[in-house]
Amino acid sequence: MSVRATARIVATRAGLPVLAGEGPLAVRRTRAEGPGSRVTVVGAMSAPLGGDRLAIEAEVRDGARLTVDSAAATVALPGRRDGADGPAHYDVRLTVGQDAELNWLPEQLISAYGSELRMRTRVELAATARLVLREEQILGRHGEEPGTLFSRLTVHRAGRPLLDQEAAHGPGAPGGWDGGAVLGGHRAVGQLLCVAPEFEEKPLAPRMLGETAVLTPLAGPAVLVTAVASNALRLRHVLDGVREELRHGRWHAAADAYG
Fold first, then answer.
1. How many domains does the chain contain in total?
2. pLDDT tens digits, one per residue of 73-89
3. Residues facing residue 123 across a β-bridge
4. How far apart are CA 89 and CA 151, in angstroms?
5. Would I find Chaperone among this entry's keywords (predicted)?
6. Average pLDDT over residues 152-162
7. Which of 48, 129, 170, 182 has the most CB atoms in a 10 Å sphere around its CB?
């Protein structure tokens, strides 16, 4: 039997007035490393399975700071053998107000063999909002082929489009997804999106980060880092390395180390 569940998080300067989970989506207040609030998503059961419809909604109101992470990786699993349940759906809806900050840092999404997942992330940012969003997708567990994974990330800032991209991997994806022009045989793919007002005055130049990652400035106060790697550990090393350097304002020195 398929599951429908939605978790809701609302952060204000005073705390977390709304923190509610359902079914496999349990949300817990955890200790923040700095100012603001931190919430950890804890998987309460195996999900998403075929036919499941899961959603997380997070709202960071004006002037608030919120970090959302997860206790473990999310594993997309197959549903019934006859496929009658259809694909699973996982929707993430994020809203960040004026002078507010959201760090969206979940663990990896693993696309297990036989699964089919359609994931969509929608972000609405105020003009002075800050965002750090990390996505990591692992195509197949150790020694197995991947499932089918369709994902889309759409970001609007001050009501205008900032980023809209789609990706498709696995046996249900268009041909060539695993070829040299896309993944080149790698099984870990991810991205780091950083949006901050200071990028308007001091934009970063595009550049390679080693052989399989690239930083691209967007048409707005944002940069996007896209990377592929042979495994989850190497992917995380690249993305979190860039995140730390950007956070501490040491990017130009760090770029030489990666390049």
1. 1
2. 999 998 766 556 789 99
3. 94, 155
4. 10
5. yes
6. 97
7. 48
Query: Token match 């939605």: residue?
Result: 6
Considering only CA atoms, which of 13, 135, 28 is closest in space to residue 66?
13
Quick one: tokens of 185? Answer: 């045989």
Q: How far from 233 is each of 40, 92, 189, 194, 217, CA to CA, in Å?
A: 21, 24, 11, 21, 25
Strands 101-105 and 207-208: unpaired
Are 12 and 61 in contact, with CB atoms under 8 Å apart?
A: yes
Going by pLDDT thresholds of 50, 70 and 90, the confidence category of residue 256 is very low
- Residues with Cβ within 8 Å of 248's Cβ and at least 6 positions away in sequence, in order, are none
* Whole-number pLDDT of residue 19: 98
DSSP character at residue 30: E
Please report how the helices 251-258 and 232-247 are oriented relative to each other, as an axis angle in degrees rounded to 10.
150
Quote the domain boundaries for residue 58.
Answer: 4-258
The pTM score is 0.91
CA dist 142 and 62 (Å) reads 43
**Residue 147 pLDDT grade (very low, low, confident, very high; cuts 50, 70, 90):** very high
pLDDT at 18: 98
Which structure tokens are listed for 93?
A: 């809806």
pLDDT (average), residues 206-223? 92
Which one, of 12, 127, 27, lies nearest residue 66 by Cα?
12
Report the distance separating Cα 243 and Cα 169, nearest Å: 25
3-state secondary structure of 238: helix
